[in-house]
Write a structure and sequence with these properties.
Distance between the termini: 40 Å
Structural class: mainly beta
Number of strands: 11
Low-confidence stretches: none
Number of helices: 0
Helix content: under 10%
Largest sheet: 7 strands, mixed
Oligomer: single chain
Radius of gyration: 13 Å
Mean pLDDT: 93
Strand content: over 45%
């Protein structure tokens, strides 16, 4: 029963910042690849970022590359997504997902084994 729990979402003004957290149970974070996805109403779930367990290689959606930073703290079993310069189009439910093969860091949501419940990020006009 691996469980993921997102937190840190909220309502912010354009240009503001949030740091999302993804807490992973069972002390397994160090061997997982973790990805952040987001889904706005009426749209497909899309990848935002991913971090591999090996080498901590990171990957970003183009629109997030210069504004978002993904990082890992294995001691706290937590992955973070620092989001700066937020825009209204960033508004979505944000989910973290875990792939048990830590060498796989894909933007395809169907390959991930575990998902959190989501945390809402709303950026006002």
């Amino acid at each position: 029963q691996v469980q993921l729990a997102e937190s840190g979402g909220g309502l912010v003004q354009p240009g503001g910042s949030l740091r999302l957290s993804c807490a992973v149970s069972e002390s397994t974070l160090n061997v997982f690849a973790i990805a952040w996805f987001r889904q706005a109403p009426g749209k497909e779930r899309e990848a935002v970022s991913c971090i591999r367990s090996s080498n901590d290689n990171t990957y970003y959606k183009d629109s997030a590359k210069d504004r978002f930073t993904i990082s890992r703290d294995n001691a706290k079993n937590t992955v973070y997504l620092q989001m700066n310069s937020l825009k209204p189009e960033d508004t979505a439910a944000y989910y973290c997902a875990a792939e048990v093969d830590g060498s796989i860091c894909s933007f395809n949501p169907h390959i991930y084994d575990f998902w959190g419940q989501g945390t809402q990020v709303t950026v006002s006009s």
